[in-house]
Design goal:
4 strands; 21% helix; Ubiquitin-like (UB roll)
Length: 75
């Protein structure tokens, strides 16, 4: 598959770091599985991974976390 950003790179399975900020909570998650463009580095998450990250953010927000750094763990 070609990258939607640079239009020339090929996507390969890899890992990325995702930072999410919402309603006063910031979560940084390392080693998230993604398809990463070999040319520009743009990353694409599949729906299951994105859903998992959403769950992590909701749980952290409910528990009062303001800032947290984690390693990705599959649900």
């Amino acid at each position: 598959m070609k990258c939607l950003v640079c239009k020339s790179g090929t996507l390969k399975a890899g890992r990325t770091t995702v930072t999410v900020e919402r309603e006063g909570t910031t979560i940084v998650i390392h080693n998230v599985p993604a398809n990463v463009c070999e040319t520009c580095g743009e990353d694409y998450l599949d729906a299951a991974v994105a859903s998992s990250l959403e769950t992590v953010l909701q749980e952290a927000s409910r528990s009062g976390v303001r800032f947290e750094v984690r390693e990705y763990q599959a649900a």
